[in-house]
Specification:
The protein is α+β, with helices and mostly antiparallel strands and 575 residues long. Helix content is 25%, strand content 17%. It contains 14 helices and 20 strands. α2 crosses α9, α6 runs antiparallel to α9 and α9 packs across α10. It is elongated and about 80 Å long.
Amino acid sequence: ERHSRRHLNTRPLGRGRRLSADGPPMLSKRNLSLLLLPFAGVPLFQWARSMPQADLHDNSPHAPDAATLALIAARTRATNAAAGRADVAKVKAGGVSGGASSSSGGSSGGGSSGRNISGVAVQGCPASRKPFHVVLTATADNYQSWQCRIMYHHWQRVRDSDPAGRCTELTGFTRLVASEGGKPDGLEGEIPSVFVPQLPASVIESHFHFGVLNRPESVRQLLASPALLRQITSDFVLVLETDHVLMQPIPNLATRTTPAAFTFGYMHAHASQDWVIQRYWPEGSSASLDPVGPSPLLIHLDQLRAIAPRWLNFSLGLRSNADAERVMQGWVQEMWGYSIAAASLGVKHRLVRNFQVEYGASAGRIPPEFPTLSYIFHYTYGIEYTLQGRPQGVMQIGEWSLDKRHYGADHPPRGLQLPPDGANAAAFWLTRAWNEASAGIPAWPDSHSMGTVGWRRNKPTADELAASPLARRVEGSRWSWSGVAGFEFARGGELVTPWGKGVWGLVSKAAGGADDPSKDAQVKACADCLFADFANANHNVRFSWDADPPTFRSVRVGDLQEVAGKWLGGGGPAA
């Protein structure tokens, strides 16, 4: 998954060990570095890349070991060129033979429709109908799992609302999951899924911790396994990512020899990249590359089968050293791997500008009918507003914030607060889409995280301090944390703790729940709290000044772990 974190101390701790309730954080330097690495900031763009399942994972091909994959990345130009001449001929002729066999059993997955939707010819449907099967690439972690659930919910909604009815081209659905050992993750009863072994940790680490390499590897395994391919009910597939939401039915925009893909502004190749391109495709040049990636991508299986090995090999090569980073953004090098691989086989794409939208708060006025003008909402960017309905600013977390990165270890809560008046149409549409999915999935778990308000956690300004009696009283005070002294709300929003420095400040007030004393309300809607964020964890703190000495209760965002604090001295006068 491609991540971006704009402030490392403004997100709940994801996978890994958290701060103990009664002691210092149990994070080694190595574990902390591994935890933070995927969330390094990127300067301009944020790309975030993730019928019950038959028990097929034991039949999946084994992932190659680290030594084998290292050899893959080191293949010579001559080997690629020799193999390429035959592949190019096959692709230009319409693909190699032997696509996935179609199923006459209707949709491959669950859903409430009950309609007779099939990936093969249906009596009464036009002969021009070209059904396709969604392949949603994912990994088996919480962050991508909740996104998959939202995506599948809306796939069902869009499929069932297609005016074409039983003649819709949007037929099958499979979540292709890279997991440890190819083991199921528990969602296979809700979402049609197949599982393949993820790449070894040593391979990911040796390629700069680039977990997105699991995407081409999982597609390679799918296409190499007849057992897994039986789950694919059409000869065309639509490759999607976990942070896609379908807005309206998608027609099959591809042909057997021309796939359809979104055109990305940052994927236009130029001559300064030729030396990298020719490392993997000696005869190639930037002029031959389409400005596309592998998702969203509508493509015939024969073409995808020809492209997949090179897509993986080139992606591994681009990430094997820092050379390519000088001219190709590191966080999208797997996309460059696909683009070079497709071009090296003579594949040209139909460029579909309205395949998806990626709106944020700074997109300006968006027409209310935008969901009928494009097919997919790709929520790769956070949508960040002030509570007055103005864009919060570049690379800023908003007072109102809808951002997938808030929910690394927890699901988003149900019933997210809608954007403030003045926000654009995209903010309202996407919030309602998340809310609709979470409300419509019975097993959606209770969340212990904040909703759309409370994530902006900056040091208080002078004006904010002047307007807050609570902040003025707390500034400069010293406390114990679960009996451990050395916890200080220092001047200027600096937080000093026995476990390192952090930040404290004012919690944005969410609608409702201000008088609710529960721990859950203290996280989601606390009107009289400060935040205290340190050790890569967020805490909302409520004070009891009537106690002798004064105390506080801290509740950690994400798991509601509670810690008690006791005043030791300092601070401003009582309000």
